[in-house]
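#onboarding

Welcome to the new folks! Below is a worked example of what a typical request in this channel looks like: someone posts a single protein sequence, and someone else replies with the predicted structure as tokens. Don't worry about understanding the tokens yet, we'll cover that in week two.

Example request:
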Amino acid sequence: MYRIYPTLLNSFAYYEAQTLDSKGNMLVDTQEMLNRINRVKRPTTQAQQRGIDFEKAVVTGENEDDFKEGIIEKARLLLPQKYKTQFYSESKYKNCLIYGYVDLVGVDRAVDLKSTRFYEPNRFALNHQNFYLLGLKKHGVKTLDYIITDFEEVYRETYSFDSYDFTPLYQQLDNFVDFLEQHKKQIRDKKIFDSKTDNNQLSMF
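Example response:
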């Protein structure tokens, strides 16, 4: 059994696509992919911290005045009226357990808060966090909303369990498992091969 979380699969998507950064270097090369699998600590980038601050501002109101007027309120208006934060989700595919924590879950909606320097429509159509829809279905969750800001405006993308095609994500997951096997000797964090699951599932409300 492989225990895999969506952000790791998103990193693998960059690796497979050989995505380049602004300097023309691979965003995630083989060593960087292994570092992420092995949970090698990296300093938080300015962009990552800005995203963390955005989420805190929306959910708790912390330092919301640091953002452009109206941004936090617009995002907040798109949230369910009642919700739980950091809601655990897991699902199984073949010999993989896909697990993680979605930002917010309320009634029949899950929400993930995102920030980006540049936004374009359907940016998260192939994001592996869409796997959360599989794990949350048993709790009555039907849709996953991405609430996104480029710090000038707020956008929403909605993906529904009933209409979403998981096929491309499954294919990439299969490829990632092949990568794990090919580089098994270089993987120090063996939790990814652990068959144990988290049975401390949170209740909904």
